[in-house]
Amino acid sequence: EDKVVQSPLSLVVHEGDTVTLNCSYEVTNFRSLLWYKQEKKAPTFLFMLTSSGIEKKSGRLSSILDKKELFSILNITATQTGDSAVYLCAGLNYGQNFVFGPGTRLSVLP
Amino acid sequence: DAMVIQNPRYQVTQFGKPVTLSCSQTLNHNVMYWYQQKSSQAPKLLFHYYDKDFNNEADTPDNFQSRRPNTSFCFLDIRSPGLGDAAMYLCATSPTSGPDTQYFGPGTRLTVL
Question: Is the predicted pLDDT of residue B82 greater than 70, yes or no?
Protein backbone atom coordinates (compact mmCIF):
# COMPACT_ATOMS: atom_id res chain seq x y z
CA GLU A 1 0.00 0.00 0.00
CA ASP A 2 1.32 3.43 -0.91
CA LYS A 3 2.17 5.68 1.99
CA VAL A 4 3.85 8.96 2.82
CA VAL A 5 5.34 9.63 6.25
CA GLN A 6 6.29 13.04 7.57
CA SER A 7 8.35 14.04 10.55
CA PRO A 8 8.17 15.70 12.90
CA LEU A 9 4.39 15.88 13.16
CA SER A 10 4.62 19.07 15.15
CA LEU A 11 7.34 21.66 15.58
CA VAL A 12 7.59 24.89 17.55
CA VAL A 13 10.37 27.37 16.80
CA HIS A 14 11.11 31.04 17.27
CA GLU A 15 11.31 33.64 14.55
CA GLY A 16 14.65 33.55 12.80
CA ASP A 17 15.20 29.84 13.34
CA THR A 18 15.83 27.47 10.45
CA VAL A 19 13.68 24.35 10.19
CA THR A 20 13.91 21.14 8.21
CA LEU A 21 10.80 19.10 7.53
CA ASN A 22 11.12 15.49 6.44
CA CYS A 23 9.06 13.38 4.09
CA SER A 24 9.59 9.75 3.18
CA TYR A 25 7.48 7.93 0.65
CA GLU A 26 6.58 4.55 -0.74
CA VAL A 27 4.60 5.21 -3.89
CA THR A 28 4.16 2.66 -6.65
CA ASN A 29 5.01 4.02 -10.10
CA PHE A 30 6.29 7.17 -8.49
CA ARG A 31 6.25 10.26 -10.69
CA SER A 32 6.91 13.26 -8.46
CA LEU A 33 6.75 14.62 -4.94
CA LEU A 34 4.91 17.78 -4.01
CA TRP A 35 4.95 20.08 -1.01
CA TYR A 36 1.98 22.17 0.07
CA LYS A 37 1.37 24.75 2.76
CA GLN A 38 -2.00 24.68 4.45
CA GLU A 39 -3.20 27.43 6.72
CA LYS A 40 -6.86 27.66 7.70
CA LYS A 41 -7.97 26.98 4.16
CA ALA A 42 -7.18 24.71 1.22
CA PRO A 43 -3.57 23.67 0.59
CA THR A 44 -1.44 25.91 -1.58
CA PHE A 45 1.25 24.52 -3.81
CA LEU A 46 4.92 25.09 -2.91
CA PHE A 47 7.17 22.76 -4.89
CA MET A 48 7.12 19.86 -7.27
CA LEU A 49 10.18 17.62 -7.35
CA THR A 50 10.82 15.01 -10.00
CA SER A 51 14.57 14.58 -10.20
CA SER A 52 16.99 13.62 -7.45
CA GLY A 53 19.49 16.10 -6.16
CA ILE A 54 18.12 19.23 -7.79
CA GLU A 55 17.22 21.83 -5.23
CA LYS A 56 14.14 23.94 -5.77
CA LYS A 57 14.12 27.35 -4.11
CA SER A 58 11.52 30.00 -3.53
CA GLY A 59 12.65 32.80 -1.26
CA ARG A 60 13.40 31.35 2.14
CA LEU A 61 12.02 27.94 1.22
CA SER A 62 13.93 25.19 -0.49
CA SER A 63 13.38 21.53 -1.12
CA ILE A 64 15.24 18.55 -2.49
CA LEU A 65 14.39 14.98 -3.43
CA ASP A 66 16.40 11.79 -3.02
CA LYS A 67 14.82 9.10 -5.19
CA LYS A 68 17.29 6.46 -4.09
CA GLU A 69 16.48 6.82 -0.41
CA LEU A 70 12.84 7.80 -1.11
CA PHE A 71 12.72 10.99 0.86
CA SER A 72 12.50 14.72 0.54
CA ILE A 73 13.20 17.63 2.84
CA LEU A 74 11.72 21.10 2.99
CA ASN A 75 13.91 23.79 4.52
CA ILE A 76 12.70 27.13 5.76
CA THR A 77 15.35 29.64 6.77
CA ALA A 78 14.85 32.76 8.90
CA THR A 79 11.35 31.65 9.83
CA GLN A 80 8.60 34.21 10.31
CA THR A 81 5.28 33.98 12.14
CA GLY A 82 3.60 33.89 8.74
CA ASP A 83 5.26 30.55 8.10
CA SER A 84 3.08 28.97 10.77
CA ALA A 85 1.01 26.36 8.97
CA VAL A 86 0.69 22.67 8.26
CA TYR A 87 3.13 21.53 5.60
CA LEU A 88 1.89 18.61 3.55
CA CYS A 89 3.98 16.32 1.44
CA ALA A 90 2.33 14.24 -1.30
CA GLY A 91 3.56 11.57 -3.67
CA LEU A 92 2.15 11.45 -7.19
CA ASN A 93 2.18 8.32 -9.33
CA TYR A 94 1.66 7.85 -13.03
CA GLY A 95 -1.97 7.02 -12.42
CA GLN A 96 -2.51 10.61 -11.31
CA ASN A 97 -3.04 9.46 -7.71
CA PHE A 98 -1.84 11.78 -4.97
CA VAL A 99 -0.96 10.21 -1.63
CA PHE A 100 -0.70 12.73 1.17
CA GLY A 101 1.33 12.48 4.33
CA PRO A 102 -0.13 13.50 7.70
CA GLY A 103 1.53 16.90 7.60
CA THR A 104 3.91 18.75 9.88
CA ARG A 105 2.34 21.47 11.98
CA LEU A 106 4.85 24.31 12.27
CA SER A 107 4.35 27.03 14.83
CA VAL A 108 6.67 30.03 14.69
CA LEU A 109 6.66 32.12 17.83
CA PRO A 110 7.57 35.82 17.81
CA ASP B 1 -9.64 34.92 -10.69
CA ALA B 2 -10.93 31.83 -9.00
CA MET B 3 -9.81 28.70 -10.84
CA VAL B 4 -11.41 25.96 -8.75
CA ILE B 5 -14.74 26.95 -7.28
CA GLN B 6 -16.67 25.02 -4.68
CA ASN B 7 -20.24 25.59 -3.63
CA PRO B 8 -21.46 25.96 -1.08
CA ARG B 9 -18.59 26.96 1.19
CA TYR B 10 -20.54 25.81 4.23
CA GLN B 11 -23.22 23.14 4.23
CA VAL B 12 -25.32 22.03 7.16
CA THR B 13 -27.39 18.91 6.80
CA GLN B 14 -29.27 16.53 9.02
CA PHE B 15 -28.30 13.00 9.78
CA GLY B 16 -29.39 10.85 6.85
CA LYS B 17 -30.45 13.73 4.61
CA PRO B 18 -28.75 13.57 1.19
CA VAL B 19 -26.44 16.39 0.25
CA THR B 20 -24.63 17.38 -2.93
CA LEU B 21 -21.45 19.40 -3.06
CA SER B 22 -20.33 20.98 -6.30
CA CYS B 23 -17.02 21.86 -7.85
CA SER B 24 -16.26 23.72 -11.04
CA GLN B 25 -12.99 24.63 -12.70
CA THR B 26 -11.88 27.12 -15.31
CA LEU B 27 -8.52 25.44 -15.94
CA ASN B 28 -9.72 22.81 -18.40
CA HIS B 29 -7.80 20.16 -16.48
CA ASN B 30 -8.43 16.52 -17.29
CA VAL B 31 -8.26 15.25 -13.75
CA MET B 32 -10.55 16.19 -10.88
CA TYR B 33 -10.31 14.90 -7.31
CA TRP B 34 -12.46 14.83 -4.22
CA TYR B 35 -10.77 14.73 -0.82
CA GLN B 36 -12.18 14.52 2.66
CA GLN B 37 -10.21 16.32 5.33
CA LYS B 38 -11.01 16.02 9.01
CA SER B 39 -9.57 18.22 11.67
CA SER B 40 -5.79 17.93 12.06
CA GLN B 41 -5.57 15.22 9.43
CA ALA B 42 -4.17 15.12 5.92
CA PRO B 43 -6.59 15.17 2.99
CA LYS B 44 -7.92 11.71 2.25
CA LEU B 45 -8.62 10.92 -1.39
CA LEU B 46 -12.15 9.68 -2.01
CA PHE B 47 -12.07 9.34 -5.78
CA HIS B 48 -10.85 11.01 -8.91
CA TYR B 49 -11.85 11.35 -12.53
CA TYR B 50 -9.33 11.03 -15.31
CA ASP B 51 -11.44 12.62 -18.03
CA LYS B 52 -14.61 10.54 -17.78
CA ASP B 53 -12.91 7.55 -16.20
CA PHE B 54 -13.98 7.23 -12.59
CA ASN B 55 -11.43 5.91 -10.07
CA ASN B 56 -12.75 5.00 -6.66
CA GLU B 57 -10.44 4.49 -3.69
CA ALA B 58 -10.89 1.06 -2.17
CA ASP B 59 -11.83 2.38 1.25
CA THR B 60 -14.28 5.06 0.10
CA PRO B 61 -17.67 4.20 1.58
CA ASP B 62 -20.56 3.43 -0.77
CA ASN B 63 -22.35 6.34 0.83
CA PHE B 64 -20.17 8.63 -1.30
CA GLN B 65 -20.88 8.96 -4.99
CA SER B 66 -19.64 11.30 -7.65
CA ARG B 67 -20.68 12.63 -11.02
CA ARG B 68 -18.74 14.49 -13.67
CA PRO B 69 -21.15 15.62 -16.37
CA ASN B 70 -18.49 17.57 -18.28
CA THR B 71 -14.88 18.72 -18.00
CA SER B 72 -15.72 21.73 -15.89
CA PHE B 73 -18.01 20.29 -13.25
CA CYS B 74 -17.81 17.55 -10.68
CA PHE B 75 -20.27 16.70 -7.90
CA LEU B 76 -19.95 14.82 -4.65
CA ASP B 77 -23.16 13.18 -3.44
CA ILE B 78 -23.41 11.92 0.10
CA ARG B 79 -26.48 9.73 0.12
CA SER B 80 -27.03 9.35 3.85
CA PRO B 81 -24.66 11.55 5.83
CA GLY B 82 -23.62 10.32 9.23
CA LEU B 83 -22.05 12.28 12.04
CA GLY B 84 -18.68 10.87 11.02
CA ASP B 85 -18.97 12.49 7.60
CA ALA B 86 -18.66 15.97 9.03
CA ALA B 87 -15.48 17.30 7.48
CA MET B 88 -14.00 19.69 4.98
CA TYR B 89 -14.43 18.42 1.42
CA LEU B 90 -11.79 19.59 -0.99
CA CYS B 91 -12.01 19.50 -4.74
CA ALA B 92 -8.81 19.66 -6.74
CA THR B 93 -7.73 19.51 -10.37
CA SER B 94 -4.56 18.66 -12.15
CA PRO B 95 -3.41 18.65 -15.75
CA THR B 96 -2.13 15.53 -17.44
CA SER B 97 0.56 17.44 -19.28
CA GLY B 98 2.88 20.18 -18.11
CA PRO B 99 4.10 20.65 -14.54
CA ASP B 100 2.78 18.20 -11.96
CA THR B 101 0.69 20.19 -9.59
CA GLN B 102 -2.73 20.22 -8.09
CA TYR B 103 -5.01 23.18 -7.68
CA PHE B 104 -7.35 23.07 -4.73
CA GLY B 105 -10.68 24.76 -4.34
CA PRO B 106 -11.48 26.56 -1.10
CA GLY B 107 -13.37 23.57 0.25
CA THR B 108 -16.87 22.97 1.56
CA ARG B 109 -17.21 22.50 5.29
CA LEU B 110 -19.97 20.00 5.98
CA THR B 111 -21.73 19.90 9.32
CA VAL B 112 -24.06 17.02 10.11
CA LEU B 113 -26.64 17.58 12.83
Answer: yes
